[in-house]
Amino acid sequence: MAAKKNKANSPTAARRVTSVMREAEALRWRALRMSYRSIGERLGVNGATACRLVQRALGRLKGDCAAMAEQVRQLDLQALDHMQERLIPGIERGDCPSVLAALKCVEVRGRLIGTFAATKTENKNENENTNRSVSWLTRAEMITELQRARERAMGPRGSITPNERR
């Protein structure tokens, strides 16, 4: 059986490290407003190659940033899950601040996952008091509002009925 080669010490790995270092150096010089021609002269390549080095470095950074942003998004979603779980007893009691906080959690979740689109609503009944506070809502109305917000953010699955929360 042939011994496996250590990939970290292979000539390919060394070239890769050198390439990444050149890309980083080219990007640093470009950030200092140097022209591609000047960057190429410093690296011993032409301006077009210097441009490609900068573009590859930017692409690598873009990918790294996207991965980090996804990690942060997942952490935020986990935090929202935890917050919503802690709000359930208050919602079941009909506690207005708990219902409002849950509605906000649903809204934020929808924005994070991209399913909650802001919609403009118009008042069709001018005589109705549209500035009514949540504290004036009945328990059934609060649950209905929570359902509507959840459906806007997550779709119609998992709806709550007033009888289930008593």
What secondary-structure arrangement, pairings included, does this model have?
Layout: H1 11-31, H2 36-43, H3 47-93, H4 96-113, H5 139-154
Helix pairs in contact: 1-2, 1-3, 2-3, 3-4, 4-5
Structure description:
The structure is a single chain. The chain has 166 residues and is mainly alpha-helical. The protein is 66% helix and 0% strand. The protein has five helices and no strands. α1 crosses α3 (47-93), α3 (47-93) runs antiparallel to α4 (96-113) and α4 packs parallel to α5. The longest helix is centred in the middle third of the chain and has 47 residues, at 47-93. The radius of gyration is 28 Å and the shape is elongated. It starts with 10 loop residues before the first helix and ends in a 12-residue tail after the last helix. Mean pLDDT is 78; it is low at 125-134 and 158-166.
In whole angstroms, how far apart are the ends?
Answer: 70 Å
Low-confidence stretches: 125-134, 158-166
Strand percent estimate: under 5%
The whole-number mean of residue pLDDT values reads: 78
What is Rg? 28 Å
In sequence order, what are the helices and strands, one letter per element?
HHHHH
* Largest β sheet strand count, sense and barrel closure: none
Structural class: mainly alpha
Specify the number of helices. 5
Shape, please?
elongated
Total strand segments: 0
Give the fraction of residues assigned to helices: 55-70%
Short key terms for the protein model shown above:
mainly alpha; 166 residues; 0% strand; elongated; single chain
